Amino acid sequence: MLVRSGLRSIRLIGPRPVPVNFYDYYLQNIPNYNRRHEIRPGITGLAQVRQGYTTTLDEERMKFKYDLFYIRSLSLKLDLAILLQSVNAVNKN
Q1: Which of 29, 57, 44, 39 is CA-nearest to residue 86?
Q2: For residue 51, what are the contacts with CB-CB under 8 A and spacing of at least 6?
Q3: How many domains does the chain have?
Q4: Does pLDDT of 93 surpass 70?
């Protein structure tokens, strides 16, 4: 039952969850960062296929721009494009 409730709180496509130890720092240093929570987090997302993992605040700012674009542009077509890019990225590695 715990697995089911966890799966209901996450989408296939959407902004990836941020590690708890970084969240407060990003919230204080990136304007409107809390907007990432307008939709449920996802297993993969536009920021992951375009930006990948981040190690600097500037990289996280760029990743956030991709997340905002995704939130503003939600569509089945965009989700399918992200899913295809995610599959391609996995196959390359």
Answers
A1: 44
A2: 59, 62, 63, 66
A3: 1
A4: no
- How many Cα atoms sit within 13 Å of 26 on the Cβ side? 23
Q: Tell me which residue has tokens 């920021």.
A: 47
pTM of the model as a whole: 0.83
Helix 57-72 / helix 20-29 crossing angle, nearest 10 deg: 80
Query: CB–CB of 86/44 below 8 Å?
Result: yes
Higher pLDDT, 30 or 55: 30
Structural domain including 33 reads 2-92
**Residues β-bridged to residue 90:** none
Evaluate whether 36 touches 15 at the Cβ level (below 8 Å). Answer: yes
DSSP code, position 15: P
